[in-house]
Amino acid sequence: xxxxxxxxxxxxxxxxxxxxxxxxxxxxxxxxxxxxxxxxxxxxxxxxxxxxxxxxxxxxxxxxxxxxxxxxxxxxxxxxxxxxxxxxxxxxxxxxxxxxxxxxxxxxxxxxxxxxxxxxxxxxxxxxxxxxxxxxxxxxxxxxxxxxxxxxxxxxxxxxxxxx
Length: 164
Known about the structure:
Layout: E1 24-30, H1 34-44, H2 48-51, H3 53-57, H4 68-82, E2 94-100, E3 110-121, E4 128-138, E5 144-155
Antiparallel strand pairs: 1-3, 2-5, 3-4, 4-5
C-alpha cells in the first residue's frame, strides 16, 4: 500500500494530526419517516414493533419505532456526509460501547454530535492513527437516543512523527 500524501489527495482536508481531543462537532440532523422505518426493518430487523403501528402500540415502545440498527445507520450517514468525506478516514476497528437510550419514532428530528476523547498513533502502522470518538444522537426534545463510543482509523499526514 502506498501512503497517501496531501499532494495526492486534494479532497482530504482533515488528517489524524488535525483531530483535537475534546473537540465536539455538530454533524447535522435528519428525520426518519414511517416508510423508511418500515423499509429498514423489513430488510434488516423485522420485529413487529418496527413493522406496524399496531404492534408498536402493543409493545413497550407505545408506537412504531425505528430499529436501533437503523438509528446507527442514520448516525453513520450524518457522520460520513458532514465529516468523514473530507477526512483521511480508513474505517473503524470497532466499538467500546453502544446504547440505544430512547426509542426513535417517525418524524423525530435526530441531531448527531461527535467528540474526540482520545487519540494515539498505531504502533504497527506508522502511517495510521487511532481516534476514539463519542457519538451522541438527540431527538427534538433534547433526549439522548444513541450513545456510541468507538474508534476510527485515519491516515497520518506525517507518518511516524509521534505527537498526538
